[in-house]
Every structure is written in structure tokens, then in C-alpha cells.
Amino acid sequence: xxxxxxxxxxxxxxxxxxxxxxxxxxxxxxxxxxxxxxxxxxxxxxxxxxxxxxxxxxxxxxxxxxxxxxxxxxxxxxxxxxxxxxxxxxxxxxxxxxxxxxxxxxxxxxxxxxxxxxxxxxxxxxxxxxxxxxxxxxxxxxxxxxxxxxxxxxxxxxxxxxxxxxxxxxxxxxxxxxxxxxxxxxxxxxxxxxxxxxxxxxxxxxxxxxxxxxxxxxxxxxxxxxxxxxxxxxxxxxxxxxxxxxxxxxxxxxxxxxxxxxxxxxxxxxxxxxxxxxxxxxxxxxxxxxxxxxxxxxxxxxxxxxxxxxxxxxx
Length: 315
Description:
This protein is mainly α. It has 7 helices and no strands.
């Protein structure tokens, strides 16, 4: 019991603390909060499930959606009325749920009335500014007409002065032309003559250059021919030189071979002569020995002949 009484006292103290002069009873506040909660839920469901509204909104925001699709940067765009209504209902629901009062709704209403008064003031200022702008535009047109008038007068005066000055200028130019026409014609004649001489000189120089170029081309061709012929002649000379060198080498080799053969022949001849001389000397020695032997032994032709008387005696 004591605990229940203490809880009741604490609840009463909290109710007294939370009590606000404009607060509603708990039952009424909860009822209004439930109604607003259902309203907020229905609005959200309606905004999420209303396909026709979504299609209409998509069609109206087609340019923005295309820009967002292709990455074009856009300023943030919101549905002000829907956002405002959602904020009002949400704030009122929170106020009824927490404080059981319509203070947020009063603040929004007061704010809306202040904005309405401010807009009315702005409308009055706009009307007054339109009148002032109309007067200023009228003064501006008058000033513009005045400026145009002054400009026209100034242009007229300057036009007359310019025409007079132009006439004087033309007169002076004609006088100068009359004074300078004869010298100008003489100058033009000599200028044409100089141009003619220059053209003749250019043509002669061109022909001379052509002849010089042709001569240079011929000289170059003859030099090329000379170089080609000299190369051919040098080649022939080199070939002949090589041929004569080969022939000289062959003759030299042949001469060397002949000299070697002659030396060999002389050596062989000398050997044969020495051999014959040796054989001759040997034969002479042998014949001398043989003859001496025959003589000593009285053989052969050196045999002693017997006398005829001696032979008969023997018989």
C-alpha cells in the first residue's frame, strides 16, 4: 500500500511538472495524436501508392529527370507544399505526444500569418514601386527625347560643317590635281619606261642565266663523260699493266728457268767434259800402261821378230 501511494504521489508530481497552461488532458492529447498519426500514415501511403500522381509528377519533372540521367548538375528541387504539410503534421504530432499541446501548430500558424502579412507588405511595396518606376520611366523617356533632340541639332550643324569642309577639301584637291597632273604624267611615263627596262633586263638576265645553266649542264655532262672515260681508260691501263706485269713475270720466270737450265747445262757440260777428260786421261794412262806392258813384254806389235836364218836352223 505504501508503495502504491508512493507511486501515485510520484505520478502526480510528474503530471504537475509536465503540466503546461495550454496542455490538453492526456486522453484528448492521445486521441488527437492518434488521429494525426493515422493522417500522417495515410498521407505517406497515398504519396507512395498513388500511381497517377506519380505519373503526373514524373511527366512534370521530365526535364529534371533527363538532366539527372545524363549527369547535368541541377539545383535541389523539393515539393514545398508537401514538405510543409508533412513538417506541420509531424511537429503537431510530436507536440501532442510529448506535451499534449498544439504549440507547434500555433507557431506554424503564427509564422504563416506573419509571412502573409509580410507578403501583403511586399505587394503594397511592389505597387508603390511600380508607380515610382512608371514615373521614372516617363522621366527617362523625356530625358531621352531631349537628348535625341540635342543630338539631332548637333548632327545637323556638324553635317553642314562637314559638307562645307568636304567641298573645300574637294576644291583644294582639284587645284592640287591640276597643278600636279603634268608632272604626274611625266613621272608615270618614266615609271612605265623604267618598268619596261626592268622587264627587258629581267628577260635578258633570264636568257643569260638559261644559257649559263645550259653551258654548265654541258660542262657537267662533259666532265661526267670525261670522268667515265678516264675511269674506263684507267681500267684498261690497269688491265694492260696487269697483263704486261703478268707477261713480264712469266718472261722473268722463263728467263730464270732458262738461266737455271743454262747453268745446269753448263754444269752438266762441265761434268761431261771433266768426265771425258778423265776418261781420256784414263784411256791414255791405260793405253800407255798397256803399250809399256806390250813393249816390256814384247807382245803384239812390239814382239821381237826372228831372223830367217835362225828359223831355218831350228828346222
